[in-house]
Design brief:
278 residues, alpha/beta, two-stranded antiparallel ribbon, globular
Length: 278
Amino acid sequence: MRTTPGHGTKLSYYDFGKTVFYACQADERFSYCCYIPEEYDETSDKHYPLLAVVHGSERMPETYRQQFVAFAEQHNIVVLLPLFPVGAGDDGDGHAYKFVEYGSTRYDKILLAMIDEASKRWRLKSECFMLHGFSGGGHFTHRFLYLHPERLLAASVGAPGIITMPDETKASWSGVADLETRFGKVFNAEALKNVKLQFVTGNLDTETWEIAVKPDYHAYNKGINDETTNRLQKLTALRDALTERGVSVQLDIVPGVAHDGFAVLPYVKAFFAEVIRD
């Protein structure tokens, strides 16, 4: 909602500022909310940059939205936040969205459908958008990057517990060898070079109790647990692997911070502010 009372010309009062949640018309099990900056004018032809922020395991899109209100106002961008609830086509598996696919559900396509729908309601620069996710959202973000680099202006990957290396000799999700047969998308390292990338984590993010895939889990395959031990080491290894392929990655290690998505946000916002200025 916005500070100005009353409805717009076509948009509802609840379509401005901190919007309501909208059911995704492509699959109503999933929903999203947005933040629309105060300056948004229905009568203008201005199109607004889009930042999508994907929640972690705790599923707090509204809390993340609040964290980006001032940033959205300062830079006149729209923020979209999906909600992938536990139990929506995932048999109660709270980690399913992190691996992009579960059964017949493609979470990457759900996000793209949300963005397409939002673009019909508001004027967005949605063909090439910014994406951030921390922890579980970082899982999703770097795998979405592999599948859809052409849709991303920039991506900020925060502290994923399990990483997928850009290894074309290993199947997903330890590598990317089978992306074409599994997802209909060829891994394209050259396309990754066109995406501005940030990896971010805390220097104290060293807990290991939740960052291994069990052999009986649907996303398990040989090699998925190979890359070092903690999140800091994993993210550094992923940065190194991409750098070897000519992909530039900004690695921000935040001092004094453990596994805390809100504590790294000043670095995330600084990264996206630079992207927007460019």
